[in-house]
Design a protein that fits this description.
This protein is of the alpha+beta class. 40% of the residues lie in helices and 18% in strands. It has a 16-stranded mixed β-sheet that branches. The chain starts with a strand and ends with a strand.
């Protein structure tokens, strides 16, 4: 990894008071205090130069690696949309600098040490010990914030920095929490006009974990109260008026692991609610609030009602990948019998029905039986299709049993031979352009094209009938539930694009189905909400590639979802106090998971927890964000 190293100076005098550089930066005093301040000036110049180079090169797309400052510090520019360690604190998505220790390089372990470390690796990650090593002592953190402040102070004209100074993104430094206040982050953000830097906002973040007594889901023993927070904010910023805005997040659904061998899916459904004013700490959001559903669904939940349909989709993807790469990785079969046996039995039964001249009626009855077998797991949500045609039934049998290319060839050979002999006269849905459909239509008139079952032809034939079957499944659901029309679905079911693109679009349509069905199961919304969600997903996927990590957001009326949150404990509850200036704020937040990833918190054993009626003791985490606004004079 190529990184730029800003070399360490041979000697760097340090001040006895960590906050001395703040005083220097704010007052704009000239640097005539001897060698101590000369060293500080050089440090500010070097630090600013490194930040500026990182910022410029990032804008040009030249580099993305952190740069190293004085051997022990690394600085990384986090752009919008990138994973941000401050996401649970800032609640904003902006470009920032993250400053932390350079990670220690581990020595190569011996084979014995490597075996011994396997059991502890997961534990280290889960407790955040590795990340904790990146945090800096508070004195060092204040010093770096001081350098950033000095460099941007227009009064520090003696610094060897090109003027006008380029305003850099906010700077945030990880702190180890070892000071009495338990500071976990220090931050600095510039105040600027269109042409000048006029001041700076200095942030301080503290966090602690503590046991909290819950009564009917509402915390009762936090010492902080809203009036104290307001008084503190007024005193700090010398303001007379202020507003308090609230935010609460409720976890409506989160998938859990089946067992130790099967990881949980990433499916989550949360409800975000915002309101103002706030009346008290941990206030239940009023019905006049603004609410948004956040929905992230990973397809293929093993216990879900769409597991069978998802398996068919995965088999379709196997075939498509085989056509594209020339290598097909066949999945394990679901059937005890071989594919050839199943297809032969299917053809024999159809042949018997054909002899009695009642193939249409009997064929439909077989279809209903097979449809119930295939879609039984989703009968509560999807209308069980009783109209599977011959090709769709063939797909159901082959997709659950084919394990080799030879199986494909033998199965399609049996089908073609039966058609040529006139032993079967299967019916088909109209509109299919598959090769098998063409052969079946030709068989009605006693003449069929010769098809060579070699190369990619058998794979292409099965892929085509699978596409037709899945498209009709999705159409039946969305139209049957009155969530979309054929016009809405045209992009996803159109045969006018190549086969690979058709598969990709069907995959996106399946993800939409998973999202809608998850909401139907776990939050049981009104039809109007489901329709809006479906249309939102359709619009997104008409313009974007498949992304199962995407969070779909849907505005909702609190009155429509009040039963889902009013008697529940929020996953996160926050109050933000400000006075009309976005950057000048005090934030208090309670959450059920640590908002800081680099500090370790005491977690009580389950044996320490007590449960008595509606009283429960559990661990919670509070964090506080305060700031000071300084103007350059």
């Amino acid at each position: 990894m190529g990184v730029k190293v800003v070399p360490a100076r041979k000697s760097r005098p340090r001040t006895s008071a960590p906050g001395a550089h703040f005083s220097l930066a704010v007052s704009g005093l000239q640097s005539n205090w001897g060698a101590m301040w000369s060293g500080a000036n050089r440090a500010a110049e070097e630090f600013y130069a490194g930040l500026l180079q990182e910022f410029d090169e990032n804008k040009k797309g030249i580099r993305k690696d952190p740069f190293i400052y004085e051997a022990d510090i690394q600085v990384q520019l986090i752009s919008k949309g990138q994973p941000n360690p401050l996401k649970n604190i800032l609640h904003e998505n902006e470009t920032i600098f993250i400053v932390e220790k350079v990670p220690l390089e581990k020595e190569e372990p011996s084979p014995i040490e490597e075996l011994q470390s396997e059991d502890t690796a997961i534990s280290d990650l889960s407790t955040g010990e590795n990340v904790g090593l990146l945090a800096l002592p508070i004195g060092r953190a204040r010093q770096l914030i001081g350098f950033y402040t000095m460099a941007h102070n227009p009064n520090m004209t003696h610094l060897k920095i090109n003027r006008p100074v380029t305003a850099l993104p906010p700077l945030w430094v990880r702190c180890d929490g070892s000071d009495p206040e338990g500071i976990s982050w220090l931050g600095a953000e510039l105040i600027s006009t269109s042409s000048n830097i006029t001041g700076i906002v200095l942030y301080m973040v503290t966090c602690k974990g503590e046991s909290s007594l819950l009564f009917c889901g509402v915390d009762k023993n936090f010492s902080v109260n809203l009036e104290d927070l307001k008084k503190s904010h007024k005193k700090r910023h010398h303001l007379s008026t202020l507003t308090a805005s609230g935010f609460a997040r409720y976890e409506l659904f989160k998938s859990t692991a089946l067992d130790d061998t099967v990881a949980a899916s990433q499916t989550t459904i949360t409800l975000d609610i915002s309101w103002s004013p706030v009346d008290e700490i941990l206030q239940t959001p009023p019905l006049s609030s603004t609410a948004t559903l956040n929905i992230k669904v990973e397809s293929g939940e093993p216990r879900g009602p769409l597991s069978q349909l998802h398996r068919e989709l995965k088999f379709l993807l196997v075939l498509a990948d085989g056509l594209r790469t020339g290598v097909t990785e066949w999945p394990e079969p679901l059937e005890a019998k071989s594919a050839v046996e199943l297809v032969q039995e299917f053809l024999n039964e159809l042949s018997k029905l054909n002899e009695f001249g009642d193939s249409t009626k009997k064929d439909t009855e077989i279809v209903k039986h097979d449809a119930a077998a295939v879609d039984g797991s989703i009968e509560c949500l999807l209308t069980v299709r009783g109209d599977l045609d011959f090709a769709e039934q063939l797909w159901c049998k082959m997709s659950s049993s084919v394990i080799s290319y030879q199986d494909l060839v033998k199965c399609f050979s049996l089908v073609i031979q039966s058609l040529q002999r006139g032993a079967i006269q299967p019916w088909l849905h109209s509109g299919s352009n598959s090769l098998l459909s063409k052969l079946i239509h030709q068989s009605y008139y006693g003449t069929m094209d010769t098809v060579s079952l070699s190369g990619t032809v058998p794979v292409q034939m099965l892929l085509e009938i699978g596409l037709d079957k899945l498209k009709k499944d999705y159409i039946c659901f969305f139209i049957g539930q009155e969530l979309a029309s054929l016009n809405h679905l045209e992009y996803f079911i159109s045969p006018s694009v190549d086969t690979q693109e058709q598969v990709h679009r069907v995959q996106k349509l399946h993800h939409i189905l998973e999202i809608v069905v998850s909401c139907m199961l776990f939050i049981k919304p009104q039809h109007e909400l489901l329709f809006s969600l479906t249309q939102s997903c359709i619009k997104y996927y008409e313009q974007n590639p498949l992304d199962e990590q995407h969070i779909f957001q849907l505005p909702v009326r609190p009155t429509a979802v009040k039963d889902l949150y009013q008697n529940e404990k929020p996953q996160k509850w926050r109050v933000e106090i400000n006075s009309g200036q976005k950057k000048v704020k005090t934030v208090w937040q309670l959450s059920d998971s640590p908002p800081i990833d680099h500090l370790n918190f005491h977690r009580p054993d389950f044996s320490e927890l007590t449960l008595s009626g509606s009283l429960e003791e559990r661990i919670s985490f509070t964090n506080m964000v305060t700031c000071s606004q300084v103007h350059f004079k």
